[in-house]
Amino acid sequence: MQWDLGLRGLVVLAALSLGFGVVAGLFVGKGGARRVWATAITAVACFGVGLLTSEWLFGWATEEDLQPNVDGLSRDEVLLSSLLTTAAVVLAIRYLAHRAEGSTGGGHLFGGHRHSALEGRGGHHQG
Asked: Are 35 and 26 in contact (CB under 8 A)?
């Protein structure tokens, strides 16, 4: 397989991936850490899936077959695959967060801390 994705195509793919990552961060729910994780996971996943979509699934097509084509990047196909990837990541993170909150009584999935029973009594142990 010959990779024909140029620098401009890589930059466009990176920008699209980052954009979809930010969108995912907005849709995952409350919590800054959860939003940052969702943004990072989605951006990386969209970049990888977009690269495979453009170069592997549609790498056989010529520039005339796929329009618009940005320096070897099959833009429309990458947009569709990124949309599906973003939806999958958002649903997975929301499901895992809901499951974690339900099983631990309000614990956080990413970056949070659980309150101990001692904190409810002023934070010190009375023996």
From this structure: yes
pLDDT over threshold 50, residue 124: yes
Q: How many CB atoms lie within 10 A of CB 44?
A: 13
> Which residues does 85 contact at the CB level (< 8 Å), separation at least 6?
20, 42, 45, 46, 49
Angstrom distance (rounded) from CA 8 to CA 53: 17
Look at residue 30 and give its three-state secondary structure. coil
Single pTM value for the model:
0.73
Neighbouring C-beta atoms of residue 21, cutoff 10 Å? 23
Token pair belonging to 102? 């339900």
Contact 13, 78 (CB under 8 A): yes
Q: Which two tokens stand for residue 5?
A: 């994705």
For residue 70, the surrounding DSSP H or E stretch is strand 69-70
pLDDT at 116 over 50: no
C-alpha 28/C-alpha 101 separation (Å) is: 14
Amino acid, res. 28: V
